[in-house]
Amino acid sequence: MAMKVLYFSNTLGERKQIPIETSDELVFFEVVEEICRKMNLSGEAVNISTPGGYTLSNIDLKNTVAQVFEEFGELFWIIQRSQVGSKETLGDDWVGSGALDKYVSEFPKELSVVNPSHPQWEKRVILEIRLINNYLDFLRQQNVNRPLWFKLEPDREKKNNFRIWRGHVLIPHNPKIKFSIIVVLSNKYPKTFPRAFIHESVLEYTGKIYTQSIWADDKTKEKYLMMCHEHMSNHAGDTDFNVWHPQLGIAHFFLRQIWLWWSAQQNLVESEWLKKHK
Q1: Is the peptide bond before 190 cis (omega within 30 degrees of 0)?
Q2: How does pLDDT run across 26-68, given as a tens digit for each residue?
Q3: Domains plus CATH for the chain?
Q4: Fewer CB within 10 A of the end CB, N or C, for the chain?
Q5: How far apart are CA 53 and CA 231, in angstroms?
Q6: What's the mean pLDDT in 254-268?
Q7: Beta strands in the chain (DSSP E)
Q8: CB contact at 8 A, 181 and 199
């Protein structure tokens, strides 16, 4: 009987992961249940993702270990919906995976003081776009058979001065499920971290989420809800937990904020979407 060794962590960015040896023929979800028991987690309240990349769907979880290994590899993160953004979940590494370090590097120190009012602001914007594209390249290399889970680019209206970024998030194995997003930079960015908002239509498919911070789009008059509003602000003053500093950018924010929130929501959103679109 062929065997595989898989590695799991419930702390993002943790290099040391819990190994588990299992049969190729076992259903992958049974492995997840076993690792959850070892970690004292509820299997019903977790999602499984590759490092910084793709969240396994409910269909993926029903495949065999051999099938999952062939498509996604051996390393997996366990994302607890109830713990998204906690220090215990995030770990100490911002990027969260050594494999990503070469794709999404920090900004040069001289650009850490470049805010939207600075003469070199457009230079920083060019590098912001490059790092986002680098992350997209990483995703393409990780799995070439599924659509990318997000798109993001700056709104080029002159009055916005590259402080508004527009795009979407989607579920790669079911790309019909897609929601518009807005990323907003303050005049103090990068000293302060970005804010992310998702179209209010997501409320039809999510569980209880924070709905008090709303951003109204000047162009469409549609409303957007802040995504994972408290996760970074809860740790912003924690000197032992380097959640944000000015040499980080939008791509880093995507990896630790938007990707983490969307990974935790995806399977619930899809389940509710399928109920409403039978």
Answers
A1: yes
A2: 999 999 998 888 888 776 678 898 877 889 998 999 999 999 9
A3: 3-88 (3.10.20.90), 93-276 (3.10.110.10)
A4: C
A5: 20
A6: 85
A7: 3-9, 18-23, 46-49, 75-80, 150-154, 164-171, 174-184, 195-199, 214-216, 223-226
A8: yes
